[in-house]
Fold this protein.
Amino acid sequence: MKKQLFALASAAALTVVLAGCGAEEAAVKINLPENQEYLSLEIGEEISVVAQTKKSENIAWACGNDNIAFISPDGKLTGLANGVTVVTAKTDSGYDNVGVVVGNGVEGTAPSTVNPATGAAGATGTAQRVFNENSRVTGLSLSLNGMTEDETLILSNGDEGTFRVTVTPSDCEDPIYFDSSAPDVVTVDDEGHVTPVSRGSATITATAPNGVTDTFKIFVR
């Protein structure tokens, strides 16, 4: 079942903004179980993720969607909800990323409601994200309301905006997925449109199908 989820046609993926597409050769490699192309775990399960590096470098771990799975600084990965996401290991020399399937792999569903033939969660299922290791995206850069991730963006309730995504290489047209670290502060939809909800701060993560990410911090006053 989980294996089939990765074979779904691109129509099953979220439709977001156009962007680009293969991870660069890097000096870090995430270990996968034998004969597996991605990591798999159940909701509530914790596994240790290990990466090999050519140099003695610190590894920074990140998860594309912290609502589906969380990875600690020491590589402990915990399944939180049904869905598909990616885990990235990054060093100063490069990065590697792998797909992660939690539970049945379909966001917002219980295992008993999944249609094995389509991967859809009954009549009211949500579109799912499809991991694609062949995506050619090597870099993402976000800007919002004319400001980049290197600047401090402060919004007020009632302000809105839509992210502009610059993709490397520029001719790629892969979907980009958006997540908010604090939806109770700032929400972001499938097209990168953000809406402030309450006072606080949130980090928006844009993720390419191969796990390349960029982040943008927003403060709401």
In short: Residues 1-25, 109-127 have pLDDT under 50 and may be disordered. The helical segments are 2-5.
